[in-house]
Amino acid sequence: MIAEELKKQIRPIDLAVLAGQKRQSPRTGFVHLYPNEESTDTIPLYENFCYALALFRQKTAESVTQGKELLAKLLSFQSLEGHFPVYLHDFPRCYDVHMSLKIAPIFVYLLRLFPAILGDLKPKIECALAKALSKLPEKPPFENRYRACVGLPLFPVDTTEFSPADWTEWLITAQLSGET
């Protein structure tokens, strides 16, 4: 009985925030990935943007303030062309030209769900989103991501041979476009 009550009290967003806090470095304030003991300074930008969105979605004053601080730091790692590096230490080199389209839904959700509390970050996020969407993507899965971000209908997709990673990207795109 008590276990059931506890399960009802823990929201998925709280679990996401706890996972981010567990991986957050007190030294840098960023979420770090630790693939092995020798490499403790790996800072993935996508996961940090996801953590910032989770902080906003927790909807407490403390978490929103922390999310704003994290976003302000992360936005400075966008290149002039609108790209983001996969890892912070790669900046200014951006090897994955689609990373900005992976991050763009986070910007869209922040602007949709939290426009009133973004404050001075709102124009910066709008600018980052505009830069991220300034070039049409080269790969078909990201054509639909681009279309979802700009509000266009999606192209039909054959999902029969999707990998788990393809499904993840497709579900994000479909949800963003309202097709789920």
Helix-strand makeup class: mainly alpha
| Number of helices, counting only DSSP H or I runs of 4 residues or more | 8
Shape: globular
- Ranges where pLDDT stays below 50 over 5 or more residues in a row are none
Tally of DSSP β-strands: 0
Strand content: under 5%
Order of helices and strands: HHHHHHHH
Characterization of the model:
The mean pLDDT is 88. Helices cover 56% and strands 0% of the residues. The chain is mainly α. The chain has 8 helices and no strands. It is globular.
Describe how the helices and strands are arranged.
Elements: H1 2-9, H2 12-23, H3 45-58, H4 61-75, H5 99-113, H6 121-132, H7 140-150, H8 164-177
Helix pairs in contact: 2-3, 3-4, 3-5, 4-6, 5-6, 5-7, 5-8, 7-8
Compose a concise summary of this entry:
This protein is mainly alpha-helical and 180 residues long. 56% of the residues lie in helices and 0% in strands.
Key phrases:
180 residues, mainly alpha, globular
